[in-house]
Structure formats: structure tokens, C-alpha cells
Amino acid sequence: MAQALGNLNQRPEIDWLERFQRNNPPSFRGGYNPDGAADWIFEVEKIFQAMGCPLIQKVTLAAFMLSGEAGIWWQGALQRMIAAGTHVNWENFKQLFLEKYFPRDVRHKKQVEFLELKQGEDSVADYVTKFEDLVRFCPMYDGVGNEEEKCVKFVSGLRPEIKQVFNYQGITHYHELVNKCRVYDEDNRARVTHYKSGGWGTHEE
């Protein structure tokens, strides 16, 4: 932490810190909070992308948001990296952070939960929320160039009456697929609600 703060006293880092803080980055205090740790990495990376943060600044800025037990952990981890000659870059930071705060058994549970995910009685919109929360733990479906596999997995979890509509359409653009499924589901639900309320074929005796 001391080195991180020292780096931030240099003019270029201060500029990046100011830009970073304007995006209200979350802090992380540590402890056993796997979901919180994964969400913290996700939110910080989202800010980095939005502000066009250079790779050389990422570790310094992220470490600035670690406090409490997590800040103490990073001081020790940083010294061990330096002593071992390990490059202090964002990928190595992220690997160490997730090994510490997002254990492998938790990651495996998230992956299994994703692979077994079904829409069930949820709306497509709710299914999408669960799907996107879990897919980030499965790079084979969420990585660059894997959009087609992602679409196939999404369709496989839909309710049968929706799946049979989209199964053979060959849509390979995820957001297009999601929007079409959502509209189809909302239209179906509206028709069912209208029918149940007596909107069709009713008359007074």
C-alpha cells in the first residue's frame, strides 16, 4: 500500500487517480465474501475500460481501493511478488486476488450452477439476469470469439415452448438472441394475461 500511495504522488498517477475516483470505484475490505470479491473485480475492470486506463496504472489504482484485511494482504503479496521477481501487472494481481478471495471450490460451484441453469418459471428477462451473472465464471462461453457457444448455451436453458421457436434459427449474436427471446416471452405472457382476464371470446348472457 505504501508503494501504491508513493506512486500516486507522481503527477501522471495523480491524474489517473482523479479520473478513477470520479467513477466512484468500490472499495474492498477482505474477509470471506466470494461474491463481493468477484463483483469488485468486475466493477473495477468496468471502470478501467470506461476510462481507457493503461495497463501500467491498473494495479496501483485497484490497490488504492483495498482497505482493512485486504490492504494488509496486498502489502504482503506485493513484497512476495517483488522478492520472487514476479511481474507486478494486472493479470498477476487479479490471479492472486481471486486465489485469495474467490476460492477454487466457489468458482467450481458457480460453473456448475451455470451449466445446470434453466429458465424454469422465470421470465426471459430474469433468466438473462441469472445467465449473465454466472457466465462470467465460464470463459469457454464468455471469452472473445465464443459468442456462438454462448448463444447455444442460452437457448438450451430456455423453457421448451420458447426453445423450440429459437432452436433452429441459428442466431449467433447474443444480444440479438436475447432481445428476440425477451420480446417473444413478453408477448406470450401478455396474451395469456389478456385471455385469463376474459379479453377474448367473452360475452354477457
Please provide a written account of the structure.
With 205 residues, this protein is mostly helical. The protein has two domains: 2-102, no CATH class; 106-195, no CATH class. It is 70% helix and 0% strand. It contains twelve helices and no strands. It has helices spanning 2-8, 11-21, 34-51, 55-64, 68-84, 90-101, 104-115, 124-135, 139-142, 147-156, 160-166, 174-196. Helix 1 (2-8) crosses helix 4 (55-64), helix 3 (34-51) packs antiparallel against helix 6 (90-101) and helix 7 runs antiparallel to helix 8. The longest helix has 23 residues, at 174-196. The model has no long low-confidence stretch (mean pLDDT 90). Residues 61-160 form the Retrotransposon gag domain. It holds the Pfam family Retrotrans_gag. InterPro entries: Retrotrans_gag_dom.
